[in-house]
Amino acid sequence: MSEENTEKNKETVKTLLEENRVFNPSEEFKKNANIQDESIYEEAVNDREAFWAKHAEGVEWYQKWNKVLEWNVPSAKWFVGGKLNASYNCLDRHVKAGKGGKTAILWEGEEGEKRTLTYDDVYKAVNKLANAIKSTGVAKGDRVAIYMPMIPEAAYAMLACARIGAVHTVVFGGFSSDSLKDRIDDAQAKLLITADGGSRRGKVIHLKEIADAAVAECPTIEHVLVVKHASNEVSMQDGRDIWYHDAVEAAEEYCEPEQMDAEDILYILYTSGTTGKPKGIIHTTGGYMTSVTATTKWVFDLKENDIFWCTADVGWVTGHSYIVYGPMSNAATQVMFEGTPDYPERNRFWKIIEDYKVSILYTAPTAIRAFMKWGTEWPEGCDLSSLRLLGTVGEPINPEAWIWYHEVIGKEKCPIIDTWWQTETGSIMISPIPGITTTKPGSATKPLPGIDATVLTAEGKAVTEGGGYLSIKNPWPSMLRGIWGDEQRYKDTYWSKWEGSYFPGDGARIDPDGCFWLLGRVDDVMLVAGHNIGTMEVESALVDHSSVAEAAVVGIKDDVKGTAIAAFVILKEGHEPGKELEDTLKKHVANKIGAIARPSKIIFTAELPKTRSGKIMRRLLRDIGEGRALGDVTTLADANIVESLKAKYDDEA
Ligand code: ATP
Ligand code: MG
């Protein structure tokens, strides 16, 4: 990197946290790892296109591409002219290779119901469903909305769409009818696939009823396919609604996969809505399948005999890339679970790991912080010795949560992979490669091979050490191809900050070893006494205190200081809020990371406003702190939380 293009120590976002612990994989892990030496990074740097072309061979193509990449900022085309099918890659090729008898899905329902499905089973189910979908009039390019509980049929539905070239848009089963309606409307979907109901903590969620309310206002929907799952009563509209089992029973056994162009759309998925109105992110087939297939092998070190468990819902990108397409393209055996971690008891996850001998666990920091809050007795009562690798995704993981995960769940023998990526990126971008990376609690470490991530100043100068804005310089295969129906928003959101570089919207610090530390969203950065401070480090300083389970900080307008830091804090069980603890915590932050980050106000709360995917919505806390009307709340998991927080805040102010 040339000198004039480099700003050393002139950071855009100030960094405060110092974390010096490092961890290396065991000799045993290294010896058996899929990736054992660093040359993979070099190979990618030397010729990025050749590198990705090599990894595109991890997918089976009907017709090979004639050009690896066509790049006209901000429009990328990967594997131009190539033809493939995602469903074929997740199913047919394994069956053909004699793996039909291998277990694909170990499903468990909330009340302990079990289903074991082989690749043969899934193959048959998907073929029939694909024909059933066709017979409702859906053709290649049409959009199909999927609104389902976490049952195998959700994966079948996605793969069946992929098989016939229909574009799926999965809407998380916890969304309201309004949110479902908005997404169906935006995507102009013709078919909705749903279920009668799903279960949530012993109660039935009446999905069909919610779907009915949405569909009543969606003129594009011609048919609704309904899976019988919870057996709750539903009303079926004549001519429109079809029972899934009837449709599948009547369907032919085999459905020839559509030969899709590499750049044909595989799916549209709406972002979580943490920072505002969700965006319909477009992913295409060839590049996406290449990236998810490769990263599953590198990052999860997936082997033939692993039992993989990603606890995300299929309604999020994590479920798309690391339940359905990545693992299934690699013929993985995986656990799929319909319930929640605390039903019927707080040891449910650990019981599942014990029962199925899960070897790879991929979950979210928000879950880990809840487990910490509940106490170690829950995991300690179960046998977790089958685990060999632990991953996290969704938010920055605070160092204390990382250490807890490492010690209490991983028994200090499992590498931890903190994976940074987004709905937009399609696959993991910054993450350790477990057999070769030295990990640091709180750091996602390094960009994966073939990913050109950097930290830039607002002016676009590279920061070689310190904080700034995360950026990705060159296109990568699973990159989003646009926002559905809004080309301008695509350009404005991701490509207008700098010339030719992608802007993910997150702040990051780069350390002297070249490791990346995600600092939180740029929208949430707090300008305090002339310094930009990210939320992550202040929150981590709070979580570092033995009484704190979770914290969210926001900058709010202050007449004297300009901006003051307000901290919303959830205590661990057994700790009482009070003035004394408030002062202790303020002091703790000042001691740990500096007086500049000392919160002016601490608000103890039992819960924080989160998206339905579990991410903290700081913009709503800012609205509360500054006495504004609340912004877009449609993606909020529980509206009561903000109402009671607002009341509490106003009381204490
Ligand atoms: P919206 O874009 O609508 O506001 P969202 O950004 O929450 O929603 P997702 O695509 O689900 O939607 O989330 C991606 C974001 O999650 C990243 O941009 C980042 O802020 C955060 N994130 C994910 N993984 C990590 C991680 N390992 N470390 C830090 N942050 C992470
Ligand atoms: Mg986002």
Describe the structure concisely.
The chain is of the alpha/beta class and 653 residues long.
Structural account:
The radius of gyration is 24 Å and the shape is globular. Among the domains are: 1-85 and 284-521, ANL, N-terminal domain (Rossmann fold), CATH 3.40.50; 529-652, GMP Synthetase, Chain A, domain 3, CATH 3.30.300.30. It has a seven-stranded mixed β-sheet, with helices on both faces. α4 (86-96) packs across α5 (119-135). The N and C termini lie far apart (50 Å). The model is unreliable at 1-9 (pLDDT under 50). The protein contains 20 helices and 30 strands. It is of the alpha/beta class and 653 residues long. 32% of the residues lie in helices and 22% in strands. Bound molecules: adenosine-5'-triphosphate (ATP) and magnesium ion. Residues 271-276, 278, 316-317, 393-396, 418-420, 422-423, 444, 504-506, 518, 521, 613, 615 line the site of adenosine-5'-triphosphate.
CATH class value of the domain at 1-85 and 284-521: Alpha Beta
Broad structural category: alpha/beta
> Ligands bound here?
adenosine-5'-triphosphate, magnesium ion
CATH architecture of the domain at 1-85 and 284-521: 3-Layer(aba) Sandwich
- Uncertain regions spanning at least 5 consecutive residues: 1-9
Cα radius of gyration in angstroms = 24 Å
Count, helices: 20
Query: How would the global form be characterised?
Result: globular
- Side by side, the strands of the main sheet go 5-4-17-16-18-19-20
